[in-house]
Amino acid sequence: MVSYFLFFYVIILFGARYISSHYAGRLRQHAVLYELTWLCNSTLLIGCLSFGGFEKLSNEYFGGYATWIFRSRPLVATSFCVAVSIDQVMWYVDLAVWLISGHFPI
Regarding predicted confidence, which is higher, 53 or 17? Predict the structure, then answer.
């Protein structure tokens, strides 16, 4: 259930950004593809694949060749979440040092 929610969330997120950038020009549309590769966005995509919701679907369509991607692997999802959390905690460290010293260290 979580896998499907994350998958549809990523599709809606990417679709809304891509459609809204239509009037901004072709360069902005390519930037939307680039933004999808950021760690926080790729964590959503890897999370929906590694929670195992698509295992039956992959067996049916790929015949067992790609099932290692879609198996229930919470360690993969957790490792991506830890990487994002480290990145986000650095903002708090940066803000605290800025309040004390007046410059951003990170």
Answer: 17
Contact 53, 1 (CB under 8 A): yes
User: 78-97: buried (b, 16+ CB within 10 Å) or exposed (e) per residue?
Assistant: eebeeebeeeeeeeeeeeee
Q: Can you say how many angstroms the Cα of residue 10 is from the centroid of all Cα atoms in its chain?
A: 8
Higher pLDDT, 63 or 44: 44
Please give the average per-residue pLDDT across 64-88, as a whole number.
76
Query: How far is it, in rounded angstroms, from Cα 47 to Cα 54?
Result: 11
Neighbouring C-alpha atoms within 13 Å toward the C-beta of 18: 10
pTM: 0.65
SS (H, E, C) 30-72: HHHHHHCCCHHHHHHHHHHHHCCCCHHHHHHHHCCCCHHHHCC
- CB neighbours of residue 59 within 10 Å: 14
Amino acid at 25: G
